[in-house]
Design brief:
Helix 1 runs antiparallel to helix 2. The protein contains 3 helices and no strands. It starts with a helix and ends with a helix. It has one domain. The longest helix is centred in the C-terminal third of the chain and has 25 residues. It has 86 residues and is mostly helical.
């Protein structure tokens, strides 16, 4: 198997585990799901990426990372405003 295929399988497994635990806890929260899935995505990208070259499959991954960081920042700002507003 190639590293990219292992990364896809690992990310799918991670997302499934998050979903199952949220359903078992009866606490489905999209913000928590996004944060946990984004953390898993960052870890997997770091593990499958080679150190000194950038393969073609990882060229556009930076756009996904930038979008994820923007959404993550928005969640943090909204939560901080919610806490400060109370």
């Amino acid at each position: 198997m190639r590293r990219e295929q292992i990364g896809i399988i690992a990310l799918a497994t991670w997302l499934t585990l998050i979903s199952v635990f949220m359903l078992l806890a009866r606490s489905v929260n999209l913000e928590i799901f996004f944060v946990l899935s984004f953390i898993g995505f960052l870890i997997i990208i770091e593990l499958i990426g080679p150190k000194y070259v950038q393969p073609r499959s990882l060229q556009y991954i930076w756009y996904l990372l930038a979008a994820g960081i923007a959404i993550f920042s928005a969640i943090i700002v909204l939560k901080a405003m919610e806490i400060l507003g109370q």
